[in-house]
Amino acid sequence: MFSFRMPQLTHTLAGWCAYNRAMNAEKKPEVWVVVGLKDGEVQEASLELLVEGRGLSDRLGARLAAVVLGGEIGPVVPVLGRQGAQVAYICDHPALSDPHPDVCLPVLESALREWVPRIVLFPSDRRMRILAARLAARLGAGLASECTKLDIDGDGYLLVNRPVYAGRLSARVACRSFPQIATFQAGYGKRSAAPCEPEVHRLSASTIAACRSTVEAEVRDPPCEMDLMSADVIVAGGRGAGGPDGFALLERLAQRLGGALAASRAAVDAGWVPAHRQVGLSGKTVAPRLYIACGISGATHHVVGMKDAKSVIAINNDRSAPIFKIADVAILGDVHEVIPQVLEKLEDAGNREEAMQRAFGNAQGDEKWG
Amino acid sequence: MGLTIAVCVTGIVDPQALVEIERGALVVDEVALPHVLNPADANALEAALALRDSRPGSRVVAVSVGPSFQEGGLREAIAQGVDDVVRLWDDAFVGSDCLGTARILAAAVAKAEAQVVVCGELSLDGASGLLGGLLAELLGLPMADTSATAKFTSDGDGLLTERHAVGGYRTIERTPLPALITVATGANVPRYPTLRSRLHSRSASISCLGIVQLGLDSADVGEAGAALQATALRRPPPDPRGLVDPSSDLPPEERWMMAISGGVQEREGALLEGSPDALAERLVRYLEQGLYIRQ
């Protein structure tokens, strides 16, 4: 165990005193990791951060605690234990299923004042960064963001590496306050810690606050406006799409799949599609979950822009088209014949599902077909 | 009714510039380095000016923490057409961490009695991306982050912001005034200053407020108030990079193309043939299996 020197800062004295009071009251020192959930499961970045946090808590002779605020947490507790969490603080409340910082902050703050951890770690995503910042401002605590490495210095304080000057330099920064707060950039290193059975504490939901901003609407861009880099599905056409009519078909397909419309250089040069939708060496580099190449031969200049797509479907009427070599599904056929059929079948499938849901009710339909 | 809109800007070391460090130094001497307006702040500035223009009688005040050699950002703001600029600097501010900087800005924003605060989502040099959250909490304001667009609601007592998310989704959020928004990098195209305003910005005088005028406590800002202390500064190791190893059986131009492309992985999809109907059926089945079809 480290001997703790008093911090020099006057404004963290209160934090230091609170920490010492807690230690005198025989509370165990703790390192907290605020865990983010995605679709009811623990985020990858948080899993890594838990292992990272366990390393720190072992060095301090402290306990690692995972803090989870969410709508339905029960199933994730064993996962936290597998990643080395010795304690789990959970707050299960429907209002937390959309964890807006306005809603979560009071819960986190009151828990923090009750249990007095030494170090609080956050994964580095948009919401968690805001939550960490608001917490630090409330407590007057030191906050290091976007850390790439976490460590403990000789005095028992958090020591981090973080990039500065747009990544040209890396600074090693000591965080001297109580508590020490940091957000961590996960590198998705798949490591694991000694598993344990976490001791579960439920946090009171009475402090949950209302969210001051409201979501008015959630809309989705049409295929021609959607940002190519962030699209899940991309339907791309080349010279083989034959002209604006062909692209109208592709746009309908993209619309149906909730994806974006893209093109190869040949189609852009022909003036069928605006230049900002071009994929390839002289256009954009994309990595969607699904890339559907329609009437694109697959010249290297195009392929370099989409080779990182998770799966590729290619439709082409030339048996020797190089795009087939990098396709998961290679379809030898004419775009103008295949795509209308696909659209028709998708329409049918949509209608079938709708009819099914009408017949069985939503919940049952989801269970059976979801 | 006019409002006061405060926009926080910062001058950063030019991202193209070579940053030299002396052995054992803990801070970079920035005096001799070229400074530019932080890219996200240029977008924040444009968002603030657009808000002002949509509401007659409003004014925009640009605030910036930094010594005089960093005031290029404020001059850029003058050229773009802000109504007032304030530089915040004092010897006591040297060595502030992000919370200290946020305290200084919060004091200035409160002094300007701004109802809307606009910040860039992050600065490229410190890259902490925390300022918005810290400032919102210090001022007790609701916050809409990484906005692509911002406008006043029709009744005028709120802001409608739009945030772009992965997959082409856009969220439109309503935040009551007074409020703080952060603007995403590249969210808009900053207006092009006229020659007249550019020349005016060169010679305009910029007022500077110090610790006394802002009513701050010297224990809260600068080195005295910084919980973060740099202990080392170095060049990061380069990222590991995969090397392309093209097969020597290939003709030279193919090998070149592979090297340029970073090596394209071949996949093992079998070539499907048949009637358009049968092919479409296979494709739809693949889409269904991959859960690409949503309602």
Beta-strand percent range of chain A:
15-25%
Q: Give helix % range of chain B.
A: 25-40%
User: What overall geometry of chain B do the principal axes of the alpha carbons give?
Assistant: globular
Named at the architecture level, the CATH assignment of the largest domain in chain A is 3-Layer(aba) Sandwich
Secondary structure: number of strands of chain B = 14
Q: In terms of per-residue confidence, which ranges of chain A show pLDDT below 50 for 5 or more consecutive residues?
A: 1-8, 362-370
Number of domains of chain B: 2
Gap between N and C termini of chain A: 52 Å
From the alpha carbons, calculate the radius of gyration of chain B and give it in angstroms. Answer: 25 Å
Number of domains of chain A: 2
**CATH fourth-tier homologous superfamily of the largest domain in chain A:** HUPs
Succession of helices and strands of chain B: EEEHEHEHEHEEEEEHEHHEHEH
What is the beta-strand fraction of chain B? 15-25%
Rg of chain A is: 26 Å
Tell me the span between the first and last alpha carbons of chain B. 45 Å
What do you see in this structure?
The complex is a heterodimer of chains A (370) and B (295). Chain A has 370 residues and is of the alpha/beta class. Chain A folds into 2 domains: 13-202, HUPs (Rossmann fold, 3-Layer(aba) Sandwich), CATH 3.40.50.620; 228-360, Rossmann fold (3-Layer(aba) Sandwich). Chain A contains 10 helices and 18 strands. By secondary structure, chain B is of the alpha/beta class. Chain B has a 7-stranded parallel beta sheet with strand order 7-11-6-1-4-5-12, sandwiched between helices. In chain B, a hairpin with a 5-residue loop joins strand 8 (149-152) and strand 9. In chain B, helix 2 (72-80) packs antiparallel against helix 5 and helix 3 (98-112) packs across helix 4. Chain B is globular, with a radius of gyration of 25 Å. Chain B starts with a strand and ends in a 6-residue tail after the last helix. Chains A and B meet through helix 5, strand 7, strand 9, strand 10 and strand 13 of A and helix 3, helix 4, strand 7, strand 10 and strand 13 of B.
